[in-house]
Write the structure tokens for this entry.
Amino acid sequence: MARQYDTESRRELRERIAELEAERDDARNESNERADFMRREGYRRCDIAACNCNSWHGGRAGDRLREIYEVLGERVNGQLPITVIEGLIETEDRLLAWERTCKEGESDGN
């Protein structure tokens, strides 16, 4: 009787192992499908050592960067886009300050 129980337990254990392996394979396939989707959408796995987020970055980042270059046009002139944008913001800040100064002068009666 003990031998039959042992054989039955082993059979159940083999069946359970097969079920778990099938679940693992399904989960792995789903994970691969999701990763493929992310890659097709322009994302990439983070490989930045300093970030170490184990996540995805991007999402058509190259497209967005090209759009920025197009909008900035000739202003880029060999500079990084962020440098050009910072310069534009500084210019806007100066113009807004000048405008406030002009308005204050008008309200003082000058």
